[in-house]
Amino acid sequence: MSRMQWKNLLCAKRLGSDSPGKISMERSPFQRDFDRVIFSGAFRRLQNKTQVFPLVQEDYVRTRLTHSLETSSIGRSLGTAAGVFLKENYDLGDAQVSDVGAVVATAALCHDIGNPPLGHAGEEAIRFWFSESEIARKLRDELTHEQVLDFELYEGNAQGFRVMSVLEMADQCGGMQLTNAALGSFAKYPTLSSSLIKPPGVAGKKFNFFHSEKELFAEVAANCGLIEYAPYSYARHPLAYLVEAADDIAYLAVDFEDGARLGMISQDEIETRFLSLLPDRSIATHLNDITDPVRRTEYLRALVIGVLVRETAQVFCDHCEELLSGGVGKPLTEMLSCTPQLKELRARSVELIYNHRKVAEIIGAGFEMVSGMLDIFVPSVNELAAEKLGRGKASYRSRRMGAMVLGITERLNDSAWCADPYARLLTVMDFISGMTDSYAVSIYRKLKGITL
Question: What topology does CATH give the domain 240-354?
């Protein structure tokens, strides 16, 4: 088995650009990546997308935007700590220690950028609709088996790669034209939905790019020198393990904190759980001086994140050679000294937060909302495309409904798009996945005549 090289893994060349990536001291390409994402419309929309608590009215509780910023901050710390080790032990080419942190921070910033409204429930709704809807059943005969799996197993991770490489800055090849290093680190599951040979372990759990973007990701993989197990099935970029760990640390710690703020978790339990993650309770030297429960929780959460970052960075360094040879098969956060306590924290989060009635009610309603929009928009777009091809006349309803889909006018002028059922479905998915939670609710209420 071949071994990946850090000087390739930190490839500064931009996707879709012929210009060679050049690392300069004042502002590296990886820092530019971070800025491009921060100022993008797709990232901005995360301010109104669900992290855990949908459509919550409290201004403290985190959204996908704040979660992504916190994950990115943790990712920068992990990447910089790893970068010190890498610079001392490997050939990084022109890259510096801070560049490693910038790559992980950018990839972590993007990790949820493709999520549909209402988070994972939105993904499940799309999968369910494509598997069970009568409308979808009729469409399946027009698609290849590989294309069917893209929707049957629909992934926000794959939508995220599509957002960055195609949809944002759509007028240029490669979309946002981020560096290969950042895009490779973003892909936690670097394979297709239909790949028969998956990356080993956790990297093969899901997929990270649709068939429509497989050549774009192949370019990323080639430039980064990722190990190829089969066509369009690759080993993880080692820094993707740090991106995954940053996400795990962020949501495990701060979701529990948010649950306490909303009264779902007692103060005694959150303090007990957080203290169990500290190797020595004496680390919490100032806890007895803090009387305000909110501040006590914030203080302990900060200590927990610090401990988890240090331990995770060390595990990454200890297993670096394995990562370069294809990975360790499981998340880094499952290799820590406090992994048993983390698993208990995760289990309590599922019990007390993720399955809480208030969360379940809105998620359930959102499930029906996403399915309902697909029932309306997919037939409408298909009717409009058929009319353009001279295969019938679209109904007045389809004209009105289809006109709401972003970019539909330009698409209907493209006969190849009109004739391609896979491309049409992707367009509808792009529209729905790009919605914020509140915009999705507003559109659905209008579609159903509840509000005008």
Answer: putative deoxyguanosinetriphosphate triphosphohydrolase fold (1.10.3410)
